[in-house]
Amino acid sequence: MKIRYDRDTCIGMFQCVDEWEAFEKNLDAGKADLVGAEEVEEDVFELEVPEDAEFDAKFAARVCPVDAIELYDDDGEQVV
């Protein structure tokens, strides 16, 4: 499973931070950071989700009020 995070879309509610430890508050920027992610486009980050973290990653994506977080299964199908 892969998570894709559009940091430009993020409005800094930090709900994802409460759901999954891979997200951290960046108070200087007023946005969350996805720790260990690779920037694949300007302000768009991707990270392979460890199998034991899939549940938390799904919750992080679902609680984002601006849909800045998407999850894709191993076949590339969007699941959240």
TrEMBL record:
Family annotation (InterPro entries): Fe-S_cluster_ET
Keyword Transport in record: yes
UniProtKB keywords: Electron transport, Iron, Iron-sulfur, Metal-binding, Transport
Pfam families: Fer4_15
Superkingdom to which the source organism belongs: Archaea
One term of GO molecular function: metal ion binding
SUPFAM superfamilies documented for this protein: 4Fe-4S ferredoxins (SSF54862)
Protein's name in the database: Ferredoxin
